[in-house]
Design goal:
This protein is mainly alpha-helical and about 140 residues long. The protein folds into 2 domains: about 60 residues; about 70 residues, no CATH class. The chain contains 7 helices and no strands. α4 packs across α6. The longest helix has about 55 residues. It starts with a helix and ends with a helix.
């Protein structure tokens, strides 16, 4: 009787091992399919970008964001970034300052907006950490 119990246990362990192998293979096939799908999506997006490049150039940034249903995370920063020529780049730097907790720098940008200073240069200098040049710029 003991021999039969050992054989049954070995059989259960073997079945469990086969099941785990099959599950792992299924997961690998799923990941392969997902990677292939993503690659096709990337190729399709690049192809469409090449075809639609002129249309994208004619759209404003807000139109582009609306088209893809993307909303800026920090609306107050977005309104500050609208005073720059490169709105997306400026917004990205302002968001970096906000996420780093540099509220004093953001207050400085708000003051520069009130004084009608060059916001884009100011944000770039703040992002790079060049405070002496900012002081010279704001004295003018």
């Amino acid at each position: 009787m003991r021999h039969i119990d050992i054989l049954r246990k070995m059989r259960r362990e073997a079945d469990e091992a086969y099941r785990r192998v099959e599950e792992r293979e299924r997961e690998e096939r799923r990941k392969t399919r997902e990677a292939a799908r993503r690659f096709r999506d990337i190729v399709k997006a690049e192809k469409l970008y090449g075809e639609w490049e002129l249309e994208y150039a004619e759209l404003s940034v807000e139109d582009f964001l609306k088209m893809y249903r993307v909303k800026p995370l920090f609306k107050d920063l977005w309104h500050m970034a609208e005073h720059c020529t490169d709105v997306r780049g400026c917004y990205r730097m302002l968001a970096y300052l906000k996420l780093e907790g540099r509220e004093d720098d953001l207050k400085l940008v708000r003051e520069a907006l009130k004084m009608d200073a060059d916001v884009e240069v100011l944000v770039t200098l703040l992002y790079q950490g060049k405070r002496e040049e900012i002081a010279r710029l704001l004295r003018r």
